[in-house]
Specification:
CATH architecture of the largest domain: 3-Layer(aba) Sandwich
Number of helices: 22
Distance between the termini: 41 Å
Helix content: 40-55%
Radius of gyration: 25 Å
Number of strands: 15
Largest sheet: 9 strands, mixed
Structural class: alpha/beta
CATH class of the largest domain: Alpha Beta
Strand order of the largest sheet: 1-2-13-12-7-6-3-4-5
Shape: globular
Strand content: 15-25%
Length: 553
């Protein structure tokens, strides 16, 4: 096979499985646990999922395999954004399927859920699978964001499955994708199709997490990749001693990535969106908080620093959320045409000034002009502001610059402030998976097939006890409905998997909170370095700081 020396060696890496999955397929039995219920809105969720709600959690253990022998034809789908380790979920699924019966078949539906609807697939064989073992990316079959949510789609999916004799579908994705998996499983069960559906938990944002899912796959590798880069920047900042680096990291709805990177690298500043919302912090207060660190460090002769900014932080600032709502209202319908017809920014600014409340105008006025224009030029298909496009790292450095200029004028600040900007997102999504993610993902795929073999549907492949060595991991499954609640989406009540935000009373945040004041003033940087694949286990198989702290280690 072609590839770099590391790539060739990674093809040969043998992922570690949980102890009870190492016994051989014939010696894996099921221990049935207690019935489950959804995290909230139990009656509504039960009504929506009458055939799949309330099922028991299960754990695999050593014992006689009592599953019924039958030929399995399984379809697999990669759904949503890329995350390191996805290939190994497919490889683990394939290996378990072939170890059970070499005549079993695995079909890969191309480019996400649309591949199932369009019957665009490949049949995997050893030669093809082996090219993707322990590698990053989703290029084995591609991914997509098509939602499976309508009766028409489900009927098409059922027909494609019938055509190929498919017995089960595995959907590898995040919270929305696994919500789709649960709804598809319910449809298949209600219509007696005989097709099972199993989900696997993926998202580098880390927000598919709860008492059962200790960690979504990809989070470990992505945060290690970003932390290496942030560590490199910290070393450079401490060498050049003249730049403040503002680093935006992925995390639209939750700040797990930012927090983990902060725990790994100990920067001077790290914003946590959930704390911003809880404290109802204004843009001005956040800018003052960062400026305080800049001023204190400058007083010690250190005109440099590193600040980590979560991608979605501005959406958590209450006054900014109000501003966005008012802008969406201001440009609703034909009013957008009137605004766009204005010949220059000066006239557009006057239009905005007339249309916003005094409070929102005060917020708008402190934004850099580039951000102001971005709010009005970049619209989504529904005519709303695309908040994800706001360059929050540049926004906060500009606000801090203004704060420092005022302090300099008042004579309280005498330092220099030269900001540089970075956004780490795509750099981590397709990285070579760490040993942890390679092992975890392979286990999720292998485990998913055991759930299929034992006849389960509407279940999530679950591997836990992840802060321990892999042979102590526990494999099993849980009904996806257990994670669900009802949320208002586009004017309708929808069953969705509840997103996990950073818990401000959780151990990882508490540790960060205890140390950040010192980090803000001192140069206590830590340098994680590149992901290690070879060497002692405490270097190569180490878990995230977040998971270790959550487990009290």
């Amino acid at each position: 096979m072609n590839g770099s020396p590391l790539q060739k060696v990674r093809y040969e890496y043998l992922p570690k499985l949980p102890g009870m999955l190492r016994n051989g397929i014939s010696e894996i039995s099921v221990k049935v646990g207690n019935p489950t219920q959804s995290v909230a809105d139990q009656d509504k969720i039960k009504d929506l999922f009458p055939n799949t709600y309330g099922k028991e959690e299960i754990t695999f253990e050593k014992g006689k395999n009592t599953s019924a022998a039958k030929k399995q034809v399984v379809g697999v789908i990669l759904s949503g954004g890329q995350a390191p380790g996805g290939h190994n979920v497919v490889c683990g699924l394939y290996d378990a399927l072939k170890a059970t019966d070499k005549d079993n078949v695995l079909l890969g539906f191309k480019n996400g859920p649309s591949g199932l609807l369009e019957d665009d697939h490949i049949v995997f064989d050893d030669a093809y699978i082996n090219k993707f073992r322990n590698t990053g990316g989703f290029d084995i079959i591609g991914s997509g964001r098509t939602k499976l949510e309508t009766e028409e789609q489900f009927a098409v999916a059922a027909e494609v499955c019938r055509k190929h004799g498919i017995t089960a579908v595995v959907i590898i994705g995040g919270d929305d994708s696994n919500t789709n998996a649960a709804v598809l499983a319910e449809y298949f069960a209600a219509h007696n199709t005989g097709v099972q559906v199993i989900g696997c938990p993926k998202t580098i944002d880390g927000d598919l997490k709860n008492e059962d899912i200790e960690c979504s796959f990809g989070f470990d590798t992505a945060t290690k990749t970003y932390s290496e880069l942030i560590g490199n920047i910290e070393r450079d900042a401490n060498s050049a001693k003249k730049y403040w680096h503002f680093v935006k990291v992925m995390g639209r709805s939750a700040s797990h990535v930012a927090l983990e990177c902060a725990l790994e690298t100990q920067p001077n500043i790290c914003l946590i969106s959930e704390e911003v919302a809880a404290k109802k912090m204004s843009l001005s207060q956040i800018a003052d908080y960062i400026a305080d660190s800049v001023e204190k460090r400058a007083a010690k002769g250190m005109n440099f620093g590193v600040a980590i900014i979560p991608e979605g932080v501005v959406e958590f600032v209450p006054e900014f959320s109000v501003l966005i709502k008012e802008i969406n209202e201001l440009l609703a319908g034909s009013k957008a045409d009137a605004f766009n017809a204005l010949p220059n920014w000066k006239e557009k600014y006057a239009f905005i000034e007339k249309g916003l409340s005094a409070e929102s105008m005060a917020v708008f006025a402190i934004l850099p002009e580039g951000i102001q224009q971005q709010l009005f030029l970049e619209r989504d298909p529904h005519g709303n502001v695309q908040v994800s496009l706001i360059e929050s790292e540049k926004l906060f450095s500009a606000l801090v610059k203004d704060k420092l200029a005022a302090r300099k004028k008042a004579g309280t600040y005498k330092g220099k402030f030269s900001p540089l900007h970075h956004f780490f997102g795509y750099e981590g999504r397709c990285a070579f998976p760490s040993n942890f993610d390679a092992d975890y993902c392979y286990s999720l795929g292998y485990n998913a097939f055991m759930l299929i073999q034992y006849g389960y549907t509407g279940y999530l492949s679950k591997v836990s006890n992840l802060s321990k060595p892999a042979d102590e991991w526990v494999a099993g499954g849980m009904p996806i409905t257990k994670m669900m609640n009802i949320e208002r989406r586009h004017g309708e009540d929808k069953p969705v998997i509840r997103k996990a935000l950073v818990e401000l009373d959780g151990k990882p945040f508490k540790y960060f909170e205890e140390h950040r004041d010192g980090w803000a003033v001192e140069t206590d940087y830590t340098y994680p370095g590149a992901i290690q694949y070879f060497g002692p286990s405490e270097v190569c198989d180490i878990t995230t700081r977040t998971l270790a702290l959550e487990k009290g280690e």
